[in-house]
Amino acid sequence: MAVYTGKDPGNPHLAEPDDHSLMLAVRAGATERLAVLFARHHMGLFNYFRKLGHTRSNSEDLVQEAFMRILRYAGSYQPDANFLPWLYGIARNTAHEGWKTTRHDPEPFNDETPAAPSDHEPATAQATRELERCLEHALLRLPRDKRELILLSRVRELSIADLALLFDCSPGAIKVRLHRSLEQLRIYFDQATGTTTAPHEPVAPPHSPRQS
Amino acid sequence: MNCTQCREILSSGHPEERASPDTCSTLQAHLAQCPACTHEAAQLEQLFALLDYQEQPSPALAAGFAVRLGQAGTASPGTAYTAVPLEQTTAPRPGPAPIKSAAPFSGLFRMLWPTRPLGAFSYSTALLCVGLLGGQLLPPGALGVHTPNANQEPAATNGILICPVQYSPPALPYSSPKLLS
């Protein structure tokens, strides 16, 4: 059986089987194996929902809901599928329905943001917190699909091919969309921080031959 | 490598784009001699570091999920996940598809409609008043609705006889002294 080879050496579930094997076990009826998947991925999902603009409590609810959906839709998990794109596909749908439930886009700021890591000096910590708020502002100004794409592109294990599958387009198109989304995010972020971008000519997005 | 190529790689946003050793070494060589691109790279790294910052959820999340998982397990042991009909698709499109409304203008109405309850109430009251006023101000027959007169002769339209009817309440079959008194 394959062994989980996550990049986090401190992960207590290092010796556990990989995600795919665990998911197949869940599909076969070993419901308790979902707890291991939860332990591995709840943090990533929580931060995904948070950065999408949900409040802390909403994000926690959405994480639980996403994992309950995994249980509910375990039968649709194919033996040749990749677990992580499947998981984040469910997370995307859960987040979409979360917006429908709350029926409004989030407030740009909320006071629930915890303090930045405490090993910094107070002034540095304050500056970091301010930058986080600027990023939050900038992300919320982006259209939702661009926000999703940027956040999912930061999930280490999701390849461009996985993103293309999630967003139902070609890998070339994903590269172009990601490039443009990042450019837009940078503009908004610079506006929020009050800085200006370097006086360089705009960079053309990467060439995207249409791939299927 | 020139600045344009360098920035193209820097702002590609995905580690895959910088993964090859050749690209990495060329990029480093360019950054070593170009202060503007170095500045750009530093700014992007800061942005990526902020994006990658991981916030800790509360411990209640794991505890709450354990409870829900336990409930799901005991509700239908071993087969809890098959309780809901599954989407049997071969394409790896996970989860239920987003629900699309059948009404063509529902999206527009949803966009225009206020989200707060007080706003929605005021909006609907105003719409009701506009409808009532509009109904009062419109001349009879303006909307093509025929409102017959009591004195009008019966008219046959497409084989259907339209008779103006004068309504009079039916007489009581008996007069109750208690009611009349």
Description:
- The complex is a heterodimer of chains A (212) and B (181).
- By secondary structure, chain A is mostly helical.
- Chain A is built from 8 helices and no strands.
- Chain A is globular.
- Residues 1-7, 107-116 and 208-212 of chain A have low confidence and may be disordered.
- Chain B has 181 residues and is mainly alpha-helical.
- Among the domains of chain B are: 3-52, no CATH class; 106-132, no CATH class.
- Chain B has 7 helices and 2 strands.
- Chain B has helices spanning 3-10, 21-33, 35-52, 59-75, 106-112, 117-137, 177-180; strands at residues 155-157, 160-162.
- A two-stranded antiparallel sheet of chain B has the order 1-2.
- In chain B, β1 and β2 form a beta hairpin.
- The N and C termini of chain B lie far apart (108 Å).
- Chains A and B meet through α2, α3, α4, α5 and α6 of A and α1, α3 and α4 of B.
Key attributes of the depicted protein:
A: 212 residues, Rna Polymerase Sigma Factor, Chain: A, Arc Repressor Mutant, subunit A, 2 domains, 59% helix, B: 181 residues, mainly alpha, two-stranded antiparallel sheet
